[in-house]
Amino acid sequence: MEAGDILGSGTISGKTREARGCLMEYTWNGKEPLVLNNGESRTFLEDGDTIEMRGFAGSDQQRVGFGNVRGTITPALPKEFFEN
User: 78 or 60: which carries more pLDDT confidence?
Assistant: First the structure.
């Protein structure tokens, strides 16, 4: 791993669509596209997408957060990069 890598460690989902824990679950493995505010439909992340995660635990009076984490999806390295 290197600085800037995005890491997923699993999800905890609820019973409704809005409570699904990740994009793959939310789009039901690509069968139910997510419609973005600009009208574009997506089923999976694409090269060039920027993802920002933020979270906290607690209540309005007392919370603990980890701050914002942001990363941009870049194209995979060519196969030749790994040869040699």
Answer: 78
pTM of the model: 0.61
- Rounded Cα distance, 56 and 6, in Å: 18
Report residue 10's pLDDT band, with 50, 70 and 90 as the boundaries: low
Amino acid at 55: G
Bridge partners (DSSP) of residue 34 are 42
- Contact at 8 Å (CB) between 21 and 34? no
Instruction: Fill in the amino acid letter for 12.
Output: I
Question: What does the domain layout of the chain look like in residue ranges?
Answer: 17-82
Are 44 and 24 in contact by the 8 Å Cβ rule? The answer is yes
Closest CA to 71 of 51, 54, 56: 51
